[in-house]
Structures are given as structure tokens and as C-alpha cells.
Amino acid sequence: MRTSLVYLGLVVACLSPIALTLLLMPVVPSMQMWDSLPLSYALNKGHWFITAIGAGLAAYGFWRAWASARWWSKTLMVLATLLCAAIHMLHQTKMSAEAMFNEPTVVARTSRSAASFSDDSTMYLWVRQGGMIAGYALDLVAHHHKIIDTVDSVPVMVTYCTMCHTGRVFSPVIDGQRETFRLVGANKFNAVFEDASTGSWWYQATGECVVGPRKGTIFKELESIHGTYEDMVMVYHPTEDMQVTTFVPDAASEERAKWSSGYARTVGDTSNHEAPRSLVLGVTVGKDSQMYPLVELVRTKAGQVVRDTIAGTVIAFRVPTATSNTVVVYRDSVGSDIVVRSTVEYRRSWEAFHP
Fold first, then answer.
1. Which residues pair with residue 244 across a beta bridge?
2. pLDDT digit string (tens) for 300-322?
3. Strand (E) positions, 18-172?
4. How far apart are CA 232 and CA 223, in angstroms?
């Protein structure tokens, strides 16, 4: 009975890190589709309290059982304690989303001339603010999941989730203050961020705070273009007095970021347009949205112009010749100066947040 208290205490002490790993990491993919953030948030907030209760039970069991326990029983109790400590250490380091997708230690960009892009086929997330256009190589954003920067004095948070193929650019200014965030994991195969001020949790796909004191608050989304330099020029038409810059990876992250090479041109499942990882084009006008299976469009209408009406607004886009190519949606007609908010992402992501 006394040794049982030791093992019971260690199980309780390991409960929250194991549960949070299963709920917030794709260890068991099917668990990602649960709406588990309220439970995960509660476990995260009570993590050290639960651990302290377990440690107290285990310590009391050790005190009562150690003197009369045989050598093999003592050995098992010590090994179980070391295993519990290792689980906590992994949860804070190797199995931590924040550690796996580390922040850049230095956020810097370099000015680029048009000539420097002559052989550059890199896919970027482009952000235009004032007289400056900033490009963030999508493979690098995929590694970090978020990069907080300032473009022409405007704070920006450039984000990309590798599990759902979603790129978003938000303003990190909340309640008039520039906020900082950390990656806590994922739910519905989408990255979840925590703000430093209140500990609230936000979805990357929608920019909505779903649990915590700021629940219901939504990020201000900033206009962005996902594509090559040529794609950006076709949409933004930069003038000679506009400065074009690109993000420079810092030395601490460059080697670790190599695993994400190629994410920018990920095409997912092209065998079936209804597959969870097939690419779709999602278009949002106001509170209304529409999904277009990109895999099917490329197969049947490559190069053609598609026109539709969403919430009374006419939208138009040219179907690319490959699912890895950029798609830009315009208002009224292809080539107009008004770009309509759209994303290319996995079907499972779009349907999870636009049921």
C-alpha cells in the first residue's frame, strides 16, 4: 500500500505533461480534431498544481515505504521517479512546440534590387506597408511558425502553420499595446499561440482568441501576398521609390530550419479533391466565405478564369497550371487593383474553421 502511493503520485505528477503532449501535438492525429483547447488550457494553467499534488503523494509514499522496502522495490521506485522527471524535462524542451519551432534570435531584413531576384524562385509571404514591401521566405516562416517584425514603422506578425498550409499576417497590437506570443502547440491541425500579457490562446488560421481572458478578440489581419517576386510585382506594382526587403535567417536558426525546406511548394494529396490534405482555395468576403477545390480546378480548368459572386461581390481568379503555383483573387475582374482576401490551404483546415 505504501509503495502504491509512490506510483500513484508519480502517475498524477506526469498526468498534465503527457495529456498536453497528446492533445497539443500530432502524436495521435485523430485527437487533433477534438475541440480540446478548453481542456488543454485548464491542464496547462493547473500544470504545476497537479504536479505538486503528485509529487507530494510520491514523497509521502517514499517516506513511509523506503525503510521496509526490499532492494528491488527501492530500485523500481527510483527508476519510476527518474522516468517521471525525464517526461517533465522532455515536455519543457524536446517535446515543447516553443522549443521545436524556435524563435529567430535576430529579426533582420536586407534591401533587394529587382536584378537580385532574376534567378530567385523562392516563395515568400509579402507584406506591404507604406513605402516598403517586405518578403519572408515561406520555408523559414514554416520553421518558426511566426516572425514578429516592423515594416515601415508598422508592427507585423507573419505566421505559417505547416500542418494546414496556412499563411497569415496579423497586427500583433492588442488593446493598443504591441504583444508578444509563444507557440503552445496545435489543435484542429492548426497552430495555437499564447499571448504574454494574459496567457490567452489564439488560432493561427482565424486569428481568433478562443480561450483565456481575451476570448472572442480577433487579430487585425494585414494584406499579404503568397508567391514569388514576380507574383508580388504583378499585384503590388512597386515603384522605384518603394523599398523591397527580404527576411534574413539568423545563424542560430538557419541550420535547424533546413527540415522545413520545400514546405512552400507542398501540394498535399492530389489524388482526390475531397481528401483531408488536398489543397483548396478559400475566399472570404465580409462574414461570408467560399471554398474552391484547387486540385479539381487545376485538373479541369487550368489557365481559365473563374468568376463567382460572394456576399454580392464579384470575384475572379485565374486557375493556375499547378497546385503549387500562386493564386490571386481580385474583385470584379482579373488584373483589377483590388485584391480579395484568399488563402490556399488543406481542405481539413478550411472545413474545420468554415463548417
1. 133
2. 999 999 999 999 999 999 999 99
3. 108-111, 124-129, 132-137, 146-151, 154-161, 166-170
4. 12
213: three-class secondary structure by DSSP: coil
Mean pLDDT for the stretch of residues 131-148: 92
Counting Cα atoms < 13 Å in the Cβ hemisphere of 283 gives 24
Map grid coordinates 523500481 to a residue: 76
> 255 pLDDT exceeds 80?
no
* Phi, psi for residue 198 in degrees, rounded to 5: -120, -10
Given this model, what pLDDT does residue 254 score? Answer: 67
**pTM of this prediction?**
0.90
Q: What is the DSSP string of 242-298?
A: SEEEEEE--HHHHTGGGGGTTGGG-----S-TTSTTSEEEEEEETTEEEEEEHHHHH
Q: How far is it, in rounded angstroms, from Cα 94 to Cα 117?
A: 37
Within its chain, how far is the Cα of 117 from the centroid? 28
Amino acid type, 28: V
Domain ranges in the chain are 2-95, 108-264, 267-353
Q: Specify the pLDDT at position 212.
A: 96
What are the angstrom distances between the C-alpha of 165 and each of 64, 92, 276? 54, 26, 12
Residue, of 153 and 104, whose pLDDT is higher: 153
